[in-house]
Known about the structure:
Layout: H1 4-14, E1 19-21, E2 30-35, E3 39-46, E4 49-54, H2 55-59, E5 65-67, E6 69-73, E7 79-80, E8 83-86, E9 90-93, E10 102-108
Antiparallel strand pairs: 1-8, 2-3, 2-10, 3-4, 4-5, 6-7, 6-9
Amino acid sequence: xxxxxxxxxxxxxxxxxxxxxxxxxxxxxxxxxxxxxxxxxxxxxxxxxxxxxxxxxxxxxxxxxxxxxxxxxxxxxxxxxxxxxxxxxxxxxxxxxxxxxxxxxxxxxxxxxx
Length: 114
């Protein structure tokens, strides 16, 4: 559990991270994420609906999987719900899966994809 002071420090420091905001995404946008343990590919379908493959989804033989994304965490119970990914944080998917920490983010606008 985080104290109010610790939570404020976490959220203030998260503004300095490279991050992808949910509000800026459009259908067809693609995000490639390199975590500590895996590579995930996320395609935006609509508002809060994504097609996810890679990592755990590949290991379960369910890629691609239609999924919501709750946001990003620091690995605990505090979650930033306005972003889909941020370096140094973990993604929490709608099925309760939490990834290892994100190391790299590659974003491709649907406008740049043939």
